[in-house]
Automatic annotation (TrEMBL):
Sequence ranges assigned to domain Fatty acid desaturase in this UniProt record: 110-334
Species lineage: Bacteria, Pseudomonadati, Pseudomonadota, Alphaproteobacteria, Rhodobacterales
GO cellular component: plasma membrane
Membrane-topology descriptor: Multi-pass membrane protein
Predominant subcellular localization, coarse grouping: membrane
Transmembrane feature ranges: 25-51, 72-96, 108-126, 221-245
Keywords assigned: Cell inner membrane, Cell membrane, Iron, Membrane, Metal-binding, Monooxygenase, Oxidoreductase, Transmembrane, Transmembrane helix
Domain of life: Bacteria
Intracellular or extracellular location(s): Cell inner membrane
Protein name: Alkane 1-monooxygenase
GO-annotated biological processes: lipid metabolic process
Family (UniProt): Belongs to the fatty acid desaturase type 1 family. AlkB subfamily.
Length: 377
């Protein structure tokens, strides 16, 4: 176990700052065009897939009792990312349409890369921040999500996913044999109404109308409209289109991660709409060192579901005997997920092995595969 005094040091935290490497790449792409515009997606996917192969896995765990006061350098990167991303996204929305040296294809590839930045880093950091108690961190999460027009993710994630993961009520638990290209339109269709219903139910428990100002959807809408207006005011319809493009890529990146995190993993229905409690084996894990640096330990997903408010440097690694393990880190697995036959060939044997290990008594998995088990009470 890594002691608290080691965790608190800057040099221990520095690998988690690798997300900042995307910022100069975005600037280089905008200034020079050409080959430079493809460096952002290459950095996020190819480079960290290669680094995972070089550095391998790590099973080291930080002392989970390390106080927040010793986590300054980790918290700082998640807080400074908001102004950094704001400057990258809107600075490029202003600059690129006025840059005569950038052609249409270069512009589109560049803003695809910007979407990789706001999705791989921005939404991931918002996920870390939304689980914390401080008002500053929660507001930062809301602003980052509004910057990609996906504000309802906070409500859906906190009020639906963490409660109902692995059951038919959770839209983002990918079903066995469900390819990503089936999954993606389904979650886009289901998550927004699911988040709205969850907030409506919470307001009702407080005897408040869904139209009450306490409904966070008013805040979500205001922030998203503000960013749309800002993009249009900077560069007109071109700026608005570029903003929408990076938001779309970011959402796609998020849902790719959601897809692989729980693919085929279900909680046992114990009768009458009751399901077993969430346990570590209901999430896929990856202990690959480099991609966990980039994704601030998102791949230690079982522990995140066990302790949702636990800050990312303190998330614990689970071994194969306690939780299922992905064969590769997220950069490689998300690429594989885009090719459903390859994904099924790679992952379905792992799911079947998981079923045999944890649920040898379940013989008929059809209701779990189809999502037709009773809704949880």
């Amino acid at each position: 176990m890594i002691p608290s005094e080691t965790v608190s040091k800057l040099q221990t935290a520095l690998p988690f700052w690798l997300s900042l490497g995307m910022v100069p790449l975005a600037i280089l792409g905008a200034v020079f065009g050409g080959f430079w515009v493809i460096l952002l997606p290459l950095y996020g996917w190819l480079l960290f897939g290669v680094l995972d192969a070089i550095f391998g896995r790590t099973t080291e765990n930080a002392n989970p009792l390390t106080p927040d006061s010793d986590l300054f350098w980790y918290r700082l990167i998640t807080l400074i990312w908001l102004p950094i991303q704001f400057c990258v996204v809107f600075g490029l929305i202003y600059y690129v349409p006025r840059a005569d040296h950038l052609g249409t294809l270069e512009t589109l590839v560049l803003f695809f890369g910007v979407g990789v930045v706001s999705g791989t880093i921005g939404i991931n950091y918002s996920h870390e921040l939304m689980h914390q108690k401080s008002r500053l961190e929660r507001w930062s999460a809301d602003i980052l999500l509004a910057m990609v027009l996906y504000s309802h993710f906070r409500s859906e994630h906190l009020l639906v996913h963490h409660i109902y993961v692995g059951t038919p009520r959770d839209p983002v638990t990918a079903r066995y044999n469900e390819g990503f290209h089936q999954y993606y339109p389904r979650v886009l269709r289901q998550c927004l109404p699911s988040a709205w219903r969850a907030e409506k139910a919470m307001l009702a428990r407080r005897d408040l109308s869904v139209m009450h100002l306490r409904n966070p959807f008013w805040r979500y809408a205001a922030l998203q409209v503000l960013f749309l207006v800002l993009a249009f005011s900077l560069s007109g319809f071109v700026g608005l289109g570029l903003f929408l493009m990076q938001a779309g890529v970011a959402i796609w990146q998020l849902e790719l991660a959601n897809y692989i995190e729980h693919y085929g993993l279900t909680r046992a229905h114990i009768g009458g709409g009751k399901y077993e409690h969430v346990r570590p084996h209901h999430s896929w894990n990856a202990s690959h060192k480099a991609s966990n640096w980039l994704l601030i330990n998102l791949q230690r997903h079982s522990d995140h579901h066990y302790k949702p408010s636990r800050r990312f440097p303190l998330l614990q690694n689970y071994s194969q005997k306690d939780a299922p393990q992905l064969p590769y880190g997220y950069p490689v697995m998300t690429a594989v997920a885009m090719i459903p036959p390859l994904w099924r060939r790679k992952m379905n044997p792992h799911v079947r092995s998981w079923r045999n290990h944890y649920y040898p008594g379940i013989e008929d998995w059809s209701a779990y595969k189809d999502g037709t088990n009773p809704m949880p009470r």
